[in-house]
Design brief:
This protein is α+β, with helices and mostly antiparallel strands. Helix content is 34%, strand content 23%. It has one domain (22-172): Nuclear Transport Factor 2, Chain: A. It is built from five helices and five strands; from the N terminus they run H-H-H-H-E-E-E-E-E-H. A five-stranded antiparallel beta sheet has the order 1-2-3-4-5. It is globular and about 45 Å long.
Length: 175
C-alpha cells in the first residue's frame, strides 16, 4: 500500500510539474519588447510573426490576427497596427521595472498581469502616475499555454476586440 501511495504521489508531482506555465508565452513577448525598446534596440522577431502565431497564441487569436492583417495599417506593411501594442504607443523609453505575475486559473484562463515603466525618459510625470499594465489572458491548448488575448488598461481594452474591429471595418470598406 505504501508503495502504491508513493507511486501516486510521484505521478501527481510529475503531472503538476508538467502543467503548462501561463507566464512562459508572456515572458517571451515581454523580452521581445525589452529588446526592441532598449537604448541600442536589437532586431528581433515580430510579436505576431507566423512562427509565433502558430506557437504561443491560441488558434482563435491567430485566426483573428490573420483576418485583421488582411487590412494593414500602411500600404507597404503587413501589420494591422500603426503602433506597438505592447507599449501602447509609437514612442517609448527603455522598459524598466518589468514584472510578470500569473494569477490563478479561472474558467480555463489564467490572467498574467504585467507591469512596467516605459515613460521614465519623458520628463516629469503626474502625481498619480502608475506603471503601464497589461493582462495577458492565457489558456491551454494542446497541452501548452498560449495567449488568447491581451487586455490593456484604459481605453485600449482587448487587443482581440481591436483586431476584430479592424477586420470588420476593412471587410466593409469599399474596394
Amino acid at each position: 500500500m505504501k508503495r502504491f501511495m508513493l507511486v501516486v504521489l510521484a505521478c501527481t508531482a510529475f503531472s503538476t510539474a508538467q502543467a503548462a506555465d501561463p507566464a512562459a508565452p508572456v515572458n517571451e513577448i515581454m523580452q521581445e519588447a525589452v529588446k526592441g525598446w532598449a537604448e541600442e534596440a536589437q532586431a528581433g522577431e515580430d510579436y505576431f510573426s507566423q512562427a509565433r502565431l502558430d506557437r504561443i497564441y491560441s488558434q482563435d487569436f491567430a485566426k483573428t490576427y490573420r483576418e485583421a492583417a488582411k487590412f494593414p495599417a500602411y500600404d507597404e506593411g503587413d501589420s494591422p497596427f500603426d503602433y506597438d501594442v505592447i507599449v501602447s504607443g509609437q514612442d517609448s523609453c527603455t522598459i524598466k521595472d518589468l514584472t510578470v505575475a500569473a494569477g490563478p486559473q479561472s474558467d480555463g484562463k489564467s490572467d498574467v498581469k504585467v507591469t512596467f515603466d516605459n515613460t521614465h525618459c519623458f520628463g516629469e510625470r503626474a502625481a498619480d502616475w502608475k506603471p503601464s499594465e497589461l493582462h495577458f489572458m492565457v489558456i491551454e491548448e494542446g497541452g501548452k499555454a498560449v495567449i488568447d488575448d491581451i487586455v490593456r488598461t484604459g481605453e485600449s481594452g482587448s487587443l482581440k476586440g481591436e483586431l476584430q474591429g479592424i477586420a470588420s471595418q476593412g471587410a466593409s470598406a469599399p474596394q
